[in-house]
Design a protein that fits this description.
Order of helices and strands: EEHHHEHEHHEHEEEHHHHEHHEHHEHEE
Radius of gyration: 24 Å
Strand order of the largest sheet: 4-5-8-3-9
Structural class: alpha/beta
Length: 415
């Protein structure tokens, strides 16, 4: 427990364990003080968390994306600054909205990163699979449904209109026209989003009530895997080096770069060639690229102080048992998560599949220690994840308890 100053209302308060990392006091956190203190958006400027404060608050749980996290933290700071200026000065400020495009492989943590930052800053956040939204005249969800979710999520329309809308799978609405098959729907979907992203007023029906919703101050974060865009970047940088009968692959090995390298150099021209229309790209000011997570990044996430393993340490501790993991077992779990189609989101389902039977039978075990071995991982997960369970040679066991969670303080003992 320690004292801190609420970044929203300025009061001195003791940080409860469950709100660790938050910049706001429990009263503001539970939305019980809107009359006295609406939000950061109407707080004093000197109470704002700095971009570094924002980044530091989540870097323990967001792994392997240092550059993207730094840029995103700065943009969220500017979003708070811009929206608060609208309220304080009662005029539209000369600070333009910077909508964001995130380009990164599946399971790189795009949604998780933005959602965690929004949670820390207490900004309403809605994630939408853009493929579920269709342009007018097509069957499917409407654009208005996105903002209806924001209004339902918070009872304060002012704050809802300054939230974050995360448009996932944005790479799926590109127009991929061929002479044989013109892609009309992809272009129509991009055109349908233009006014909404730039800022417009739309009508939303909630029950029998019609509400007006202004999207001018909504921060839009578009994200996708953009499979194949690395090839576009490579072609732009290297030209047609591989063309011709005299081309020797062995002479080109030293020029071979990985996908992360080419993805980091992506620019507007590459996105246009990928299939976006110029008008859409003109409304996206900031382009962020993310790298593919590595095995060590996943292991750090598993072993972090707020990670999924710490949760299971608490569960077993309540049963009077100490939880132990073989390092080989940790590697296996990390491999499964890394290979999953949903990436870091699979941590919870993997741990549940691993431990549910163990917890069910725990009452019949006299041992005070429960050790998760590689054999135990194979026993409980081999049917569901057969390909991911490759052998990793190690003889170490990691002793995990509440006092030493975190990769920098992991205590290791031999079996």
């Amino acid at each position: 427990m320690k004292n801190n100053t609420c970044k929203r209302c300025g009061e001195i308060y003791t940080i409860p364990k469950e709100h660790k990392g938050s910049f706001i006091c429990p009263q503001c956190y539970t939305n019980e003080k809107y009359e006295e203190c609406v939000h950061f958006f109407s707080s004093k400027r000197d109470l704002f968390p700095s971009p570094k404060d924002i980044k530091d608050s989540v870097e323990k749980i967001v792994m392997g994306q240092e550059t993207a996290l730094k840029q995103l933290s700065t943009e969220l700071y500017k979003h708070i600054l811009r929206c608060s200026t609208v309220e304080i000065e009662d005029v539209r400020p000369n600070i333009k909205k910077n909508n964001i495009l995130m380009c990164g492989p599946t399971a790189s943590g795009k949604t998780f990163m933005v959602e965690e930052l929004a949670k820390i800053l207490d900004i309403p956040f809605v994630s939408v699979d853009i493929t579920s939204i269709t342009p007018e005249g097509y069957a499917g969800g409407n654009i208005e449904d996105i903002f209806k979710k924001l209004l339902i999520k918070t009872d304060n329309p002012y704050i809802a209109q300054r939230g974050i809308v995360f448009l996932d799978e944005i790479d799926k609405i590109v127009q991929k026209e061929t002479p044989q098959s013109p892609d009309i729907k992809g272009r129509l979907m991009q055109e349908a989003l233009l006014r909404t992203i730039e800022g417009t007023t739309i009508q939303i029906k909630i029950g029998n009530e019609i509400r007006l919703f202004d999207t001018s101050n909504i921060l839009f974060v578009c994200a996708g895997a953009f499979v194949g865009i690395e090839d576009i970047v490579e072609k732009r940088l290297n030209g047609n080096k591989k063309i011709g009968f005299s081309f020797d692959e062995s002479n080109n090995k030293e020029d071979k770069k990985d996908k992360d390298y080419y993805r980091s150099l992506v620019n507007e021209k590459d996105f246009l060639e990928f299939g976006f229309i110029p008008e859409f790209m003109g409304r996206i000011s900031v382009k962020l690229t993310l790298n593919k997570l590595k095995l060590e990044d996943v292991k750090k996430a598993l072993l972090s102080k707020n990670g999924i393993i710490s949760e299971y340490v608490e569960i077993f501790k309540l049963e009077g048992r100490k939880l132990l993991f073989e390092e080989k077992a940790i590697d296996m779990l990390a491999n499964i998560i890394l290979s999953s189609d949903i990436g870091m989101r699979s941590m919870r389902s993997v741990m549940a599949a691993l431990t549910n039977d163990i917890l069910f039978d725990l009452i019949y075990s006299p041992s005070k220690k429960v050790k998760i071995t590689c054999d135990l991982v194979k026993k409980h997960l081999s049917i569901k994840y057969p390909k991911e369970l490759e052998s990793i040679n190690t003889e170490k066991t990691i002793l995990i308890n509440k006092s030493n969670l975190g990769t920098e303080n992991v205590k290791e003992v031999r079996v």
